[in-house]
Amino acid sequence: MKISARLSALLAVSALAAGAFAAAPATAQVAAGTGTAAVTPPDISLTNVKQHLADLQSIATANGGNRAHGRTGYKASIDFVKAKLDAAGFTTTLQTFTSSGATGYNLIADWPGGDANQVVMVGSHLDSVTAGPGINDNGSGSAAILETALAVSRTQFQPTKHLRFAWWGAEELGMVGSRYYVNNLPTTDRSKISGYLNFDMLGSPNPGYFVYDDDPTIEQTFKTYYAGIGVPTEIETEGDGRSDHAPFKSAGIPVGGLFSGAETYKTAAQAQKWGGTSGQAFDRCYHASCDTTANVNDTSLDRNSDAIAYAVWNLASGSGTPPGGGTVFSNDTDVAIPDGSTSTATSTVNVTGITGNAPSNLAVGVDIVHTWRGDLKVDLLAPDGSVYALKAANVSDSADNVQTTYTVNASSEVANGAWKLRVQDMYSGDTGYINSFKLTFP
Ligand code: TRP
Ligand code: ZN
Ligand code: CA
């Protein structure tokens, strides 16, 4: 589910408490045709999240029915998540600790780039209790942040802030892994964490929609997401100290998170607004052997997964400074290209806040998905309509896709305004779409 630019803009101007998570001053990624600066978070695939849950279930089944600290199912879970992140380009670190006489593991995954002095951290505990496979508690949070991390890689998201994901060990023994991480983090590194977002139980079968009431900016980000999809939320009141945000909070780091409910019963009023069954626990299989893949509510898991992506993109994006410096404006909305036609497809990026003219080395990022790319003639249009040819059609070029960055001398153009990528497909048969269009001002 994508969120309107209007809501993102609203978020960007939300008030801040002193010392709280510093929200983005202005967002630089631009949604299609809106004219409003706004980041566009991806829709997290429920199918993919559920596949990760099915894999965690298989791991439990193959390892005596659980994924608990000190058991083989825990290490197998860590190895599973780590392999996916390594393949996606994350820098992963396995941190070991000892608890109750057994080795425990935290997995830390850093996404290269962003401001190392402003870290947005996202975490979930990966261990289960010994009683069962721990699919809602907490395969759900673990799978949702894994898929969010993979979406960061897929979209090659370049946030202003540095992004770090974490899967904690031995939460069920009293937040042992996350406390170990925080305690062993040098004070200077602690102060670089702008915010820690925790996700523990996101797919409760009789779900509630709870937002932690800690850092006001993080809390408002989640509330804005939920307001955008018209789902009421409640403040999470029972959770302080009950999950991995606690050690971060104790260290003075702004925290927030989401929760769909555990052993507490749903009230009649809650059933009224959220559906489900009143007088019954949010999760009747909490810490039990029946916490399997059957113990997950898809709607709750889907909404919470999308809410994570929404928060990560908004809280980390800031002014869109890529690792090499500069300001990025992009449009990630797909635009179909009419096949073999004189009609063209255009994608628009609205540039704002740049003084004077465009540079002589304007970087024009083009991502077009199309078979037989020789069909395509691609131009950049400046705000005043001036045309810069990026690529001519060439009927003998049979390769797929145009995925490259062109450097354009645009120094005679005023920078601010609506820049367009215009694509014409000259020959019928092969088809495709504009996947994204991005301008980087150095
Ligand atoms: N792992 C947590 C626990 O067993 C799950 C939990 C229960 C929770 N209630 C919560 C997490 C409230 C966050 C907030 O205690
Ligand atoms: Zn838990
Ligand atoms: Ca064609």
UniProtKB/TrEMBL annotation:
Main location: secreted
Signal sequence interval, chain numbering: 1-22
Pfam families reported in the protein's UniProt record: P_proprotein, Peptidase_M28
Quaternary structure, from the entry: Monomer.
Keyword list, A-Z: Calcium, Disulfide bond, Hydrolase, Metal-binding, Protease, Secreted, Signal, Zinc
Residues that span the membrane, as ranges: none
One GO cellular component, as annotated: extracellular region
Protein name: Peptidase M28
InterPro entries: Galactose-bd-like_sf (IPR008979), M28_fam (IPR045175), M28_SGAP-like (IPR041756), P_dom (IPR002884), Peptidase_M28 (IPR007484)
Molecular-function annotations in GO: aminopeptidase activity; metal ion binding; metalloexopeptidase activity; serine-type endopeptidase activity
Cofactor: Zn(2+)
Origin superkingdom: Bacteria
Compartment(s) of residence: Secreted
Sequence similarity: Belongs to the peptidase M28 family. M28A subfamily.
